[in-house]
Amino acid sequence: MKPQRQSIGGITPKTLYDWLTNHSRVLAGNIEYGTQMNNTEQGVNIKCSKSAGTTPAAPNTDFTVSHILGRIPITINSQDTNNGGLLYRSPATPWTKTAVTLRCTTATAAYNLILV
User: How much is the pTM?
Assistant: First the structure.
């Protein structure tokens, strides 16, 4: 007769197997932001907020970007612009749970932004 598997404090061997399978999948390089600059992809496994837009017509002018994090973002994780401009925090307005206020070093820059 085969011995019965024992549960350890509510954690079954199947649960442990599932956890290890998921962790090995993640550690094997399957961490991603997704393939589009929107926040609707279901397969994304990094909590972030992605945005795209155009900065104001004058450099170093405040503009606001809404986000979906539900908390104050830690930082800008990634950005790119079509004219070499750099996005940075506005010193005039603190970030909130729903929006960040930024500035750009160049005028009218089309940007992609990832906040974490």
Answer: 0.72
